[in-house]
Write a structure and sequence with these properties.
The chain is of the alpha+beta class. Helices cover about 40% and strands about 15% of the residues. The protein contains three helices and three strands; from the N terminus they run αβββαα. It has a three-stranded antiparallel beta sheet with strand order 1-2-3, with no helix packed on it. The chain is elongated, with a radius of gyration of 18 Å. The relative contact order is 0.10. The mean pLDDT is about 85.
């Protein structure tokens, strides 16, 4: 049994590719890598740039927002 429906393949609902956007990640099966899509990188930069460098304190709400974004992206951060 074929895992992909030929009807859907011909209709264009699916395609064969080694790079796919899966659950919010760009997965490259040839290079065995994952990346953040550009819109998620931009959102992270916006959040980080909204905090002044010299700021020593922040609200709990803003801190939770930053932590939530970092936790959701931690799997792709090198190191």
């Amino acid at each position: 049994r074929d895992p992909v429906s030929m009807k859907k393949l011909l209709k264009g609902d699916c395609s064969w590719s080694t790079v796919k956007l899966i659950l919010g990640w760009i997965v490259d099966t040839v290079n065995m890598t994952i990346q953040l899509p550009p819109h998620r990188v931009e959102r992270l930069w916006e959040i980080l740039n909204s905090i002044p460098r010299r700021q020593k304190r922040t609200s709990v709400k803003k801190w939770h927002k930053v932590l939530g974004e970092l936790r959701s992206m931690a799997i792709a951060l090198p190191g």
